[in-house]
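Structure ticket #2291
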Amino acid sequence: MTQYRQPRQAYPPRGERDQPALPAGYLRNGYFDTSNNTLPEVIVDWPKNIAGNLYASRQMKTAQLRRFFNEARRIEGKLDAGASFPSLKPEILKFDNYAADAVKKKKAPPLFKEFIEQNLKWATKEEKAFRRGFIPHFEAVVAYFPEAK
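Resolution: structure written out below.
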């Protein structure tokens, strides 16, 4: 009796298998609830998940993640010094370029670029979203990012 083999399945290229994704419903409605309070998942649940997935990729180092966060704090400092939010929007939007470059150079996983893209949709809408949404959210991701051992 002749045995028939199952045809081989096409596998995604190495490095693209089981790429982690952002949490379900991530930033669907922004950073705030209907009463304008920061959503708890922005500070705890989502950052834990994202930090764990970024770390699991083995591409992103703590220093690289902090470099991005420090840039966000630098922009916040300009706001504190009196710069207008609209004048700083181009600097905030550059995060997308920087994230794409980091992914291209294999210093960050594609998940990081996706994280930045999703956040820029909200963080560039208004100063409050940048200061009270994006900054604390990003800070929590950095805080939950495990130290390399």
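Closing remark: Residues 49-144 form one domain.
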